[in-house]
Amino acid sequence: xxxxxxxxxxxxxxxxxxxxxxxxxxxxxxxxxxxxxxxxxxxxxxxxxxxxxxxxxxxxxxxxxxxxxxxxxxxxxxxxxxxxxxxxxxxxxxxxxxxxxxxxxxxxxxxxxxxxxxxxxxxxxxxxxxxxxxxxxxxxxxxxxxxxxxxxxxxxxxxxxxxxxxxxxxxxxxxxxxxxxxxxxxxxxxxxxxxxxxxxxxxxxxxxxxxxxxxxxxxxxxxxxxxxxxxxxxxxxxxxxxxxxxxxxxxxxxxxxxxxxxxxxxxxxxxxxxxxxxxxxxxxxxxxxxxxxxxxxxxxxxxxxxxxxxxxxxxxxxxxxxxxxxxxxxxxxxxxxxxxxxxxxxxxxxxxxxxxxxxxxxxxxxxxxxxxxxxxxxxxxxxxxxxxxxxxxxx
Length: 395
Fold this sequence. Notes:
alpha+beta; D-amino Acid Aminotransferase, Chain A, domain 1; five-stranded parallel β-sheet; 13 helices; globular; disordered C terminus
């Protein structure tokens, strides 16, 4: 390093593609330097057409996707990834049945047969399942089911053949019919987590999640009402009966206060002492299960990182269940709740990824990160003693 570069180092620059306007604004608010050029940027943040770009990375250039990320962001592939890992994992990992609802990939003949074989001879209203289409997002195509005659006929035509059309590769999961209700409404938590390295595995979670609520009070028998059952802001707002005056998001800390002060079912430190540690266990298990798949077709030069979202449903026993994982998860922050979360979450994620990059480039050990401020370690194979430490405090 010459004297000029030692004292006048060019700041790390981020290129955002045209459809990443929310990320671009967040990075700007966090003081990151933005590049208008793919070639001149140290980090590429892309939502579209990023796969071809992964093979064109310059040495030590970062991109916010792993080649094998479909192994967890696809509902069916996430189910398969977890099932494969659960079948051979040791006791140090969280069993799949403890955090992921019973699930069947209907496009795989053996699992399709297994699902229909375990159904009771006579349909029962208590036997609730949720169907999730394979290639849709934002809650589209979801069905709550307890009657299966039409469903059997729908799948009978496939016989013992696999379903190869991705649009028809749906899964079916045991429905969590006893969700934790907030002001009488079904809710879901969006958790933001960061994978910065695969070997050694290094994963972090942002301790300030967001809480999403449905518009209408929960009624178990109102199966077709999206405002009751599908906890997705897009689905809520597009519904013709949506009331724009209804609050759909809570800050994470409000959840803790509500459980302690209003419901009296949790202690004042439930989030820090119980919920977040369990979420870390879930994310650690998902990360170990997916590590090899994420690395599949890893670029020959340049490096990958990713900010993922995890949707968590809490039941009325305060047990968290993983619903699904998203890439580039809902980064718009037009509302007050997300405005306090998204920019600092994304800004620190970029600083951590840059520090990993710069340590690699300088040949330094990937440890003792100065950029980790709010994030909490989920997995750190080089410094396992850091895992599980409490975050620095409420935001």
